[in-house]
Amino acid sequence: MLRIGKLNNVEARVSLIEQWFFLRRLSLWSMKKEAELESALSRNRRWVVNNQIKNIILRYPNNEIPIETLQKKFKTLDLQGKALNWLSKYPCCFQIHDNRCRLTKRMMNLVAQEHSLIDSLQSLFARRLAKLLMLTPRNRLTVLKINEFKRAFGFPDDYVIRILPNYPNLFHGH
């Protein structure tokens, strides 16, 4: 709290009022949003949601999902509104027909490229994981501990089922 000798003094009151307005302006200034940053965050959020929808679609037979089923999963994605409206905003990603949704050919090509890239990096991931295990006292780590570091080492989310079975000579599950 600011204190000045005599509050009857006009100069002291003016000074207090000026300080209050200055601090008020600073607090308001720090709350202003950066338009470019907000736009980038919004685009990133949409990309993340579209990626989640893509992964959901890929889990279904023939890479096709009923829109009603996707609508139910929409709530788990923290989205409000109709799934059909969201999908309609991105015709380059999602193809809608007969109340079903699938990925467009362009998106399927991107998915194929993504899988190809991950497959080509499997040996690199296996070497990184082997080196990590060599740093431990008994060459062992729990999957839970590895999960804490997986982003730092660049491991894919499904490394346990994608990498470990392909290298039985390096990794043993106990």
From TrEMBL:
InterPro entries: PORR_domain, PORR_fam. This is PORR domain-containing protein. It comes from the Eukaryota. Residues 32-172 form the PORR domain. It comes from Vigna mungo. GO terms for molecular function: RNA binding.
